[in-house]
């Protein structure tokens, strides 16, 4: 395969996936502001839970989007599915820049917000195929490295979202809650237009091209074929990915609200908390690629298994550190979580892709990732807030991390060499 083809595939995937996660993390990081504007409540817990609930609604649509786009990706090509999904993703981003608030249209505002999130969640279900598209451009012994680029782009999107939000807050000041919060969504819409152009120019996956050229290559109904013949790898993929999704959304979304609402005094203001997060997200992004490459050498199970064990034992101490009114304690808590978080993230795309053959890889990966996103990711901020409310313990969210870490360890131990499929084109 020509190097230019691989470079275009990597570039288009990174840029488009950066947009996807820019938008999703932006909404989560603006949870407090959106809660005040669309769900005015006297109780900050209720307002925040309402905002996080809308965030979770989008994730509930992701498995449906994964099924539809998975069918398109496995039957008509990865590129076709990815072009349609990025278009569908860009429209709601632009709508968020103009959607009226509760003060303007009353109850219609949260209804419009929910509809917007449903469309975004559905289209994001198709974006999971980014990983298979990338990995099918890799050499067999570089799947972990290439897969980590897809995850790295999610980290880049998250950093960019936080940076744009902070810049908007800085330049608009007191007007941020009036109109300044819309600026990051305008930026996202512009990036969306650019991403559409780039993705249209990207080529098709070589593995899919070779597979589709065979007489019995493309199955009539990828979703039906998946559930009939590949239920075991589907369940394993969901279980090992839940800890990745849980840790991702707690690290990228919940930590900011936790630090800003429940643990900080004048010693550490929310903006400094966001700065701490950006620094640690950037560090974790670099480590993600390193752990992805490491998994190509020592194996996915060892890297992800070790990370899951570390998350199990570090979850409670990390939340204790984050609850302290100290810059250094909060920074240490972030860093201790960032290391195993990156280790679950880096190899995850390759580990899941290898559980499915080419004929159902896009569908299987997409459905598994999006079900795990709904179970372990989208519900995590809501569940963490609820656990704190009913227990009164600031460390209670750690139990959510511990649960999914245990599930991941069990699932990883059940994967055998017979479960691995590395049938993409050898280069």
Describe this structure in words.
The chain is mainly alpha-helical. It has one domain (7-202, 220-419): Growth Hormone, Chain: A, CATH 1.20.1250.20. Helix content is 80%, strand content 0%. The protein has 18 helices and no strands. Helix 4 (78-96) packs antiparallel against helix 6, helix 12 (231-263) packs antiparallel against helix 15 (327-353) and helix 13 (270-298) runs antiparallel to helix 14 (300-322). The longest helix is centred in the middle third of the chain and has 33 residues, at 231-263. The model has no long low-confidence stretch (mean pLDDT 84). The chain crosses the membrane at residues 45-69, 81-99, 105-124, 145-167, 179-198, 234-258, 278-298, 303-321, 327-346, 367-389, 395-413. Pfam families: Sugar_tr.
SSE topology sketch:
Layout: H1 3-29, H2 31-38, H3 44-75, H4 78-96, H5 102-105, H6 108-127, H7 130-135, H8 143-172, H9 183-201, H10 206-213, H11 222-229, H12 231-263, H13 270-298, H14 300-322, H15 327-353, H16 358-378, H17 380-391, H18 398-414
């Amino acid at each position: 395969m020509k190097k230019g083809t691989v470079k275009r595939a990597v570039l288009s995937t990174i840029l488009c996936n950066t947009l996807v996660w820019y938008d999703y993390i932006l909404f989560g990081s603006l949870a407090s502001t959106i809660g005040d504007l669309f769900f005015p409540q006297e109780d900050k817990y209720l307002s925040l839970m309402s905002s996080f609930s809308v965030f979770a609604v989008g994730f509930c649509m992701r498995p449906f989007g994964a099924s539809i786009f998975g069918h398109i990706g496995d039957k008509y090509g990865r590129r076709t599915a990815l072009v349609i999904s990025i278009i569908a993703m860009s429209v709601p981003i632009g709508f968020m820049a103009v959607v009226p608030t509760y003060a303007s249209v009353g109850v219609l505002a949260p209804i419009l917000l929910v509809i917007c999130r449903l469309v975004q969640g559905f289209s994001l279900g198709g974006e999971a195929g980014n990983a298979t598209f990338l990995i099918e451009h890799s050499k067999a012994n570089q799947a972990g490295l290439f897969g980590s680029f897809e995850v790295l782009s999610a980290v880049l999107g998250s950093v960019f979202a936080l940076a744009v939000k902070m810049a908007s807050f800085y330049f608009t000041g007191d007007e941020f809650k009036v109109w300044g919060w819309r600026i990051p969504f305008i930026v996202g819409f512009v990036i969306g237009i650019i991403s559409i152009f780039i993705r249209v120019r990207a080529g098709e996956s070589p593995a899919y091209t070779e597979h589709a050229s065979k007489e019995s290559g493309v199955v009539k109904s990828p979703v039906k074929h998946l559930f009939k013949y590949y239920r075991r790898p589907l369940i394993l993929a969901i279980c090992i990915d839940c800890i990745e999704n849980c840790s991702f959304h707690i690290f990228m979304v919940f930590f900011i609200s936790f630090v800003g609402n429940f643990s900080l005094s004048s010693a550490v203001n929310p903006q400094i908390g966001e700065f701490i997060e950006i620094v640690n997200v950037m560090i974790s992004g670099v480590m993600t690629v390193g752990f992805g490459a490491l998994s190509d050498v020592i194996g996915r199970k060892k890297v992800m298994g070790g990370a899951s064990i570390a998350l199990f034992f570090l979850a409670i101490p990390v939340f204790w550190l984050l609850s302290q009114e100290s810059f250094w304690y909060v920074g240490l808590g972030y860093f201790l979580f960032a290391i195993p978080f990156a280790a679950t993230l880096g190899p995850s795309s390759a580990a899941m892709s290898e559980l499915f053959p080419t004929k159902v890889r896009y569908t299987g990966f997409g459905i598994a990732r999006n079900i795990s996103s709904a179970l372990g990711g989208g519900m995590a901020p809501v569940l963490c807030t609820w656990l704190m409310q009913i227990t009164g313990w600031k460390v209670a969210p750690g139990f959510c991390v511990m649960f999914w870490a245990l599930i991941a360890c069990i699932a990883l131990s059940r994967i055998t060499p017979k479960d691995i499929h590395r049938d993409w084109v050898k280069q």
